[in-house]
């Protein structure tokens, strides 16, 4: 089994109208949500072999939060220009070219490509992978070039709002 984890960048700021899209930083919500998601991954034992990231400011800031929370080891990270605004086919091509020694790949990038990739590989319509959302897919194959034709399943979907809802469910019936 090969694993692909998809991380969408955290919420970005639109406060600087002169910045080009590539340079937009995270906003306050993004800076709050990314570390929370990183801690969740660390707590479940997430350990990718390789992390490819879009080089945009918001993806690098998101990834920095994951490194600071020790959810991702810095030595696993590689900037990959083709991930900036990649569509699902470009993402699939990237996945197909991974080395055999890698069994858990993480892509840090953007929508709509990430959401479309989940739908195409698993047949699961998640609606939209939200900012700071994390999805892990399992591909029933041994070589990365087989992933596009493999039986793929959505194994995990974590969202900031989903984590809030889980906390809400732990309250008793009186809401205390």
Indicate the percent of residues in helices. 25-40%
Tell me the span between the first and last alpha carbons.
43 Å
Strand order of the largest sheet: 3-2-4-1-5-6
Report the uncertain regions: 165-176
| Distinct helical segment count | 5
Q: Layout of SSEs?
A:
Elements: E1 2-8, H1 28-43, E2 50-53, H2 57-68, E3 77-79, H3 88-96, E4 104-109, H4 113-122, E5 134-139, E6 152-158, H5 160-169
Parallel strand pairs: 1-4, 2-3, 2-4
Antiparallel strand pairs: 1-5, 5-6
Task: Walk me through the structure.
By secondary structure, the protein is of the alpha/beta class. The chain has one domain: 3-Layer(aba) Sandwich (Rossmann fold), CATH 3.40.50. It has 5 helices and 6 strands, in the order E-H-E-H-E-H-E-H-E-E-H. Strands 3-2-4-1-5-6 form a 6-stranded mixed beta sheet, sandwiched between helices. Helix 1 packs across helix 2 and helix 3 crosses helix 4. The longest helix is centred in the first third of the chain and has 16 residues. The chain is globular. The chain starts with a strand and ends in a 7-residue tail after the last helix. The C terminus is likely disordered.
């Amino acid at each position: 089994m090969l694993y692909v984890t998809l991380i969408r960048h955290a919420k970005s700021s639109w406060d600087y109208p002169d910045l080009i899209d590539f340079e937009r930083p995270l906003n306050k919500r993004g800076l709050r949500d990314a570390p929370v998601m990183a801690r969740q991954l660390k707590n479940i034992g997430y350990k990718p072999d390789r992390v490819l990231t879009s080089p945009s400011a918001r993806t690098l800031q998101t990834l920095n939060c994951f490194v600071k929370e020790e959810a991702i080891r810095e030595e696993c990270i590689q900037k990959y220009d083709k991930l900036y605004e990649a569509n699902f086919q470009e993402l699939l091509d990237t996945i197909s070219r991974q080395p055999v020694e890698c069994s858990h790949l993480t892509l840090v990038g953007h929508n709509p490509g990430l959401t479309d990739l989940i739908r195409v590989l698993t047949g699961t319509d998640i609606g939209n992978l939200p900012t700071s959302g994390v999805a892990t897919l399992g591909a029933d194959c041994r070589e990365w070039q087989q992933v596009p034709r493999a039986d793929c399943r959505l194994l995990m979907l974590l969202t900031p709002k989903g984590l809030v809802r889980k906390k809400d469910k732990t309250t008793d019936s009186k809401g205390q």
